[in-house]
Design goal:
Elements (H helix, E strand, L loop, with lengths): L2 E6 L3 E4 L7 E6 L10 E8 L2 E3 L4 E3 L5 E4 L1 E3 L4 E8 L8 E8 L5 E6 L4 E3 L8 E6 L10 E8 L3 E2 L5 E2 L5 E4 L1 E2 L5 E8 L8 E8 L5 E4 L4 E4 L4 E8 L7 E5 L6 E6 L2 E6 L7 E10 L5 E11 L6 E6 L4 E4 L3 E10 L7 E6 L2 E5 L2 E6 L3 E10 L4 E10 L3 E13 L2 E13 L2 E9 L7 E2 L5 E2 L5 E6 L7 E10 L4 E10 L7 E2 L11 E7 L3 E9 L4 E10 L2 E7 L12 E9 L2 E9 L2
Parallel strand pairs: 2-10, 12-20, 22-28, 30-36
Antiparallel strand pairs: 1-3, 3-7, 4-6, 4-9, 5-8, 9-10, 11-13, 13-17, 14-16, 14-19, 15-18, 19-20, 21-23, 23-26, 24-27, 25-26, 27-28, 29-31, 31-34, 32-33, 32-35, 35-36, 37-38, 38-42, 39-40, 39-41, 39-43, 43-44, 45-46, 46-49, 47-48, 47-50, 50-51
Amino acid sequence: PANMTLESGDNQNKTVGSVSDNMVVRITDQNGNSVEGVTVHFQVVQGDATLITEADQNTNVDGLAFAKVRLGNQTGQILINAVSDSLNGSPVTFHIQALSASAAKMIKFSGNPQMGTVGAMLPFPIQIKVVDHYDNPVSDYSVTFVVTGGGGFFGEEQPVKTDSAGIASVNWTMGPAPGNNTAMAVAYGLQNSPVPFSVEAVNNNLPSFTALAPDVTVMEKQMVRFTLEASDPDGDPLSFSIINPPRGAVLDSVSSTQREFKWIPDYDQAGTYKIIFIVYDNKGGADRDTSTIVVENKNRLPVITAFQPEKAEFSVKPDSTIHFSMTAEDPDNDQLTYFWEVDGQRVAEGFQYSYTADSLGHYEVIGYVADPYDTTFHQWILNVKTRVELESLTASSKIANGLPVVAVDWITRVEVDNIGFNIYRSRFKTGDYEKINSQIVRSHKSGQYEYVDRTVTAGLRYYYKIEDLDLNGNKTLHGPVRADIPVPNEFNISQNYPNPFNPVTTIRFVLPKSGFVQLSVFNILGQKVRTLVDENRKAGFYNVIWDGRNDFGNSVPSGIYYYKFTAGKFHSIKRMILMH
């Protein structure tokens, strides 16, 4: 078997509590022929449903495997995966939309109690919710709202249809005189119908927005922020609200008349949003403002979730066949394609690739995963019959004696006729590499090696390769590995060492940024004895040696001395003792 494809049963719409149609996959070989007896595992991965067939199904003579589920009591999307390990196309995902049952009852959802302003629309609509006997929302159901007292009216034509959340909603404008306004929602045959609403209307001057919400275009994960401001002619206290805010949006209080809107759209929130802001007083007066926010899609790279072989670098004998594979997921659910390169040459498509090592040397095998916008990859280094096999190769930055160094460590698994190793360094991964060791690192039985590079600079990145050399003069490079040299995060100067000292001592200091540096030595009378540093220095780590002499080159007497360090606004003075 090579491939699994969806045969039938996807995109079903079923009522809660019912049984799905068959979900069917087909298993074929590389030539498209059906394969019998292959086990396919079905599992519910999302939603309220239970398999009523066995989870593991064997394909029949036509290469088909079937499964059914019984839907539970909750509406929403149900996802069922059909999985057969190592097959191209696995898993196959089936989609079932669980729909609500028949409408059973209606309940008051929101909008009561409120206060209203005479002749003005209420700040918030009055709403009822229609549900089935499992309390799932029922959409597209007719509800009639009727004014029963006060002389007001509704802005919507009756009857009103429920939305996808089962909500029927109307905007209610109060009657022309102060007093009680009443209405009801009617849906004949439903439990709780009719549902009454009552609002007290008063004379009132309406609040209004004085600083309006702007229209904005942003990328996913880019913050939207702006301030709303309103006023009320009567000086009534004001409240602010958002109708149907996008997920994650907040409206923070700035003052009694100002609010700040903040939102960082997530990766699944690309689209156009018409956001309605409401300001209302305590007498039912309100004003509205609308902002259109366009969130543009920011593509996310596919994520490689598994790969074989697991080791990034390994050795094989000539004529060996190595099987490579990758699986990946896309955070944006984009369609993925796979392809392979060997030493920069495209050699295959699909999520699997087999390579036969027919000649000696080193080979770079890269598996790529691409969505319609970007590509990610996993890399293997294949060594064919090398005389030295590495178990590990690392490069790590450290601080030694106050200065940055890079420790290049490697462990060998096999060494045959190996004399030793050279170490090469480059500033760039694909740049020119220079040998940095003056003497060869001799081979020894332990197979564990370390070379310390003491010629690195803070804030730079270095790449390292090691080269093995055998008795016949054959050379093989391994790597590269990378080391980043950190920049200090604060000014510091250390106590000199040794202290007391004779005749020389070392003073270490670090600079988090470039700037002018002064380091001077003073006697106990405050007289300057020696200027050690008086110049611009780059960010980094430094050792300065004082040999016990003054600026004229003469030895100074034994005693207590002070050294003063100044770099930007940082100052430090420390004491030291010279003993002849």
